[in-house]
Amino acid sequence: MSDLDALMKALGESGGDKAILANGEIAHLAVSGHKILSMRDVEGLEVEAKEILQGISAKVTVRAGVKIKNPVRLCFGILHKKGTQKIKVDVKLEKDSSAHFIAHCIFPKAEEVKHIMDAVIDIGENAEMKYSETHYHGLYGGIEVIPKAVVKVGKGGRYLADFTLTTGRVGRLNMDYSVEAGENAVTELTARVFGHADDDIKIKEKVVLSGENSKGLIKTRVALEDDAMAEVTGITEGNAAGSRGHVDCMEIVKDRAVAKAIPIVNVTNSLAKVTHEAAIGSVDKRQLETLMAHGLTPEEATDIIVRGVLK
Amino acid sequence: MSVLEIKNLTYIAGEKRILDGLSLLIGASEIHALLGTNGTGKSTLAYLVMGCEGYRPTSGEIIFKGNVINDLKIHERAGLGITMAWQEPVRFEGISVRDYLTLKTKDADPSLYLEMAGLHPELCLHRMVDKALSGGERKRIELASILALNPKLAILDEPDSGIDMLSTQDIINVITAFKKNGSSVLLITHREEIALMADKASQLCRGKIVCSGSPMEVAQYYKARKCLVCDAEVCVYV
Ligand SMILES: Nc1ncnc2c1ncn2[C@@H]1O[C@H](COP(=O)(O)OP(=O)(O)O)[C@@H](O)[C@H]1O
Ligand SMILES: [Mg+2]
């Protein structure tokens, strides 16, 4: 089987749609290890990618005024037990453009795997970028995921990002996202992670509201079982008049898991407002009892509550 | 045979004697209204019958279809056909109304039950049972979900609270649906027009049932703030 076939098979097994690579109207980039296996541009969206030591480097540009109709598919994977994958991306959405990127990160057999993502994202005036990243990990936990993104959202722009790692072992996650929002810009960062065994999760998300009337939301949902650990840091700075920020962190812990939430709120303009809420604890008793009164066992009820929170 | 028989039930929490030798019978397909002012122990009784954590009788017996269920856990009681709609139903993230109504019955069509509770299925099936629902919507969804379970005994803790006066008819419809299904209902309520559709009613005061009988009769006492324990004087506890 070719590397591409193997990657697409793994994508299919993790619920992804492998037919998209054949579709001429959908832009994509598929990378296995440090090899670019397949890529396609569409009109108004340019991808320049090259292989580098231990990974790839890509430059993605969406031209001014272009609205990319179909979500751009990115597929990154390491199908072997060992390996390192560095993804360096530079994304630029020019003025008034919009695009949705859907990334699948697949590491089914990881025993000693490192996946490093380094993204610099520049969103122009009134441009909108949606980015959804979903991870599919194996059951061995031998993986380290280090996603880092530095994002700048221009006047009236929008950046909506979603990170999901709820299938398989997390391994070690060290996420670091930082977004600066300009005038009237909107940003939403959502992360959902389910930790098991001795998974070690560190999530740091920062939103700097530097433009007037900018808005930011950091939403984190973490569930932990066994001996997993998580530390979630949500930082919001309100530096301009009319800026509004909110940090919403929920962590559900079971067994011997340990969870920590560090909300940091910094307001330097008296007309800015930032709020935060953090809830850490076992599954809510009333939720549990309600589902049990509907006939579910405590285990089934817990499972449904946790899956709902991570949805 | 009665579906629910409560015998001499006492429940003491800390220093407080909340229920004090309460006895109550509910027959098959019987809608039994329970009246009582705030803080008389109605919800406490509901939690004891459902078997919520921390609510076990200090003494006395809760008997369901001839078996003492004092020590059963909530889901075990649910397995026997007992269920409850809480006074303030809890919210869930990421669970849709459709999923919520088909937790146990994956293939059932929940629309019917939503309609019975006065909701438009097409407007709410895809919504989440979360904070975005209004209080009244959440309560109706809870009633619909309990109805969908087709229980032998439904405990409804103030199903009318938080629902506007105009929608009282919806609650009445739901209760009628329980009756048609052959469910027994312990109906905790303050509203006379709802109590009046019951088959029987009881008034709770000082942790005891102080009068039982036809809903009309009991509602009269309740309205007059009269209590039989206090010799038909105006009861200081009511
Ligand atoms: N766990 C508890 N510990 C102490 N007091 C309680 C407890 N639960 C309820 N109570 C008290 O018992 C009384 C009855 O409460 P409740 O059953 O909620 O009344 P109702 O539903 O009739 O309004 C109230 O005075 C309440 O404060
Ligand atoms: Mg009550």
**Helicity level of chain B:** 25-40%
Question: Could you list the spans of chain B in which at least 5 consecutive residues all have pLDDT below 50?
Answer: none
> What fold name goes in the CATH topology slot of the domain at 4-92 and 151-224 in chain B?
Rossmann fold
Biggest β-sheet description of chain A: 10 strands, mixed
Structural class of chain A: mainly beta
State mean pLDDT of chain A (0 to 100 scale): 95
The H/E string of chain A reads HEEEEEEEEEEEEEEEEEEEHH
Compute the gyration radius of chain A: what is it? 20 Å
- Which strand-content bin applies to the residues of chain A? over 45%
Count all strands of chain A and give the number: 19
- The CATH C-level name of the domain at 4-92 and 151-224 in chain B is Alpha Beta
Small molecules bound:
adenosine-5'-diphosphate, magnesium ion
**Global morphology of chain A:** globular
Largest interface (C-beta under 8 Å): A-B, 24 and 22 residues
Identify the CATH architecture of the domain at 4-92 and 151-224 in chain B: 3-Layer(aba) Sandwich
Order of helices and strands of chain B: EEEHEEHEHHHHEHEHEEH
Q: What's the Cα radius of gyration of chain B?
A: 18 Å
Low-confidence stretches of chain A: none
Major sheet strand order of chain B: 6-7-8-3-9-10
